[in-house]
Amino acid sequence: MNVSPYSNVSEGKKEQVEKMFNEIAFRYDLLNQLLSFGIDKRWRRKTIAFLKKENPKLILDAATGTAEFAIDAINLNPKKIIGIDISDDMLTLGRKKVEQKKLLHIIELIKADAENLPFPENYFDAATVGFGVRNFENLERGLSEVCRVLKKGGTFAVLEFSIPKKFPMNFIYNFYLKNICPLLGRIISKNPIAYEYLFKSVSNFPYGERFKTILLNCGFTDVKFFPQTFGIVTIYVAKK
Questions:
Q1: Cα–Cα–Cα angle for 151, 86, 9, nearest 5°?
Q2: Cα-Cα end-to-end distance for the chain
Q3: Alpha-carbon distance 26 to 178, whole Å?
Q4: Cα(173)–Cα(6) distance, rounded to whole angstroms?
């Protein structure tokens, strides 16, 4: 388990992540836009586009946060999207956005743990996770749970941070995550530790081929991945 620097070491990673995101929820969307220079919207749209040909009617958005991914997935014309997260404050903000966009009849947000999903096997046509799998306390268990609730032939699309391999982009990116992100976090969210956690969680995440192998070991097949924007994020697409 990768222990978060955020809180008391006697707490598990899950409790620390929940506490952290509750505290930064009110500035989470703004910080995402600033830290990604607005590119996060394009990354989400591109990830969701991989599901278009599947025409999914029931979609799970795990680690939904403030429901940005769930809202963008409306473009797939589903009958229902269920977003789950462990942070009450993030879900509260997400529900407000869903209500403002008049999408309550399609998007439902509930508090649930991605590592113990409250759904039966073979339930969803597709599943998404945007910038959330690196926060799983037990990565393999969370991925196996997503696989369990997906229907046979269902598609899993993941958008997650990765580390550029080529110089000078890898140097610039690491400096940005390690130094600039905590500074912006201190100024905007009053919580620099949360963005120190961002650097550590991204650095420790098994991206690329390693994450592909983990997905295969968790029951997925036909795993493909597509680095974006010099490799600072990667889109993963897998089938059950």
A1: 125
A2: 26
A3: 22
A4: 22
CA distance 180 to 174: 10
Confirm if 227 and 162 have CB atoms less than 8 A apart: yes
Q: What tokens appear for 169 in the block? A: 């982009």
CATH architecture classification, 13-239: 3-Layer(aba) Sandwich (3.40)
pLDDT (tens place) for every residue of the chain, 240 residues total: 333 333 333 346 677 765 666 666 556 666 666 666 678 889 999 999 999 999 999 999 999 999 999 999 999 999 999 999 999 988 999 999 999 999 999 999 999 999 999 999 999 999 999 998 988 989 999 999 999 999 999 999 999 989 998 899 899 988 888 888 777 767 776 666 666 777 788 888 999 999 999 999 999 999 999 999 999 999 999 999
By DSSP bridging, strand 107-111 and strand 150-161 are unpaired
Break the chain into its structural domains and give their ranges. Answer: 13-239
List the alpha helices (DSSP H) in 13-62. Answer: 13-24, 28-35, 39-49
Contacts of 38 (CB under 8 A, 6+ apart): none
Helices (H), the chain: 13-24, 28-35, 39-49, 68-72, 88-100, 139-149, 169-175, 181-188, 192-204, 209-217
